[in-house]
Design brief:
Blueprint lengths: L18 E4 L2 E5 L4 E5 L2 H24 L23
Antiparallel strand pairs: 1-2, 2-3
Length: 87
């Protein structure tokens, strides 16, 4: 197939299951890539739960560190800098 051809015959699918077994080891799929191997499906499932909760915590932390858009008022404690004259 040439790079200019339309991908009309290419089928994309998404599995509802993140877990998969490969060579007797368990993995889980994420947007960032596959994670694993894990010795059992139960451990892989627990790691998926941990991974999702860590990502949610990271996301909320990043959101809490965002600077308000210009024109928004800041509370006095937020992002205040003190200029101290040097003698």
């Amino acid at each position: 197939m040439r790079s200019t051809d339309v991908d009309q015959y290419r089928h994309f699918f998404r599995s509802q299951e993140r877990l998969f077994c490969f060579n007797g080891q368990w993995f889980f799929a994420t947007r960032e890539g596959d994670c694993g191997p894990f010795p059992t499906k139960d451990i892989a499932r627990a790691e998926v739960t941990r991974y999702i909760s860590e990502r949610a915590a990271l996301r909320s932390f990043q959101d809490s560190r965002k600077v308000p858009a210009s024109g928004a008022e800041l509370l006095p404690d937020e992002l205040s800098l003190a200029l101290v004259p040097m003698d």
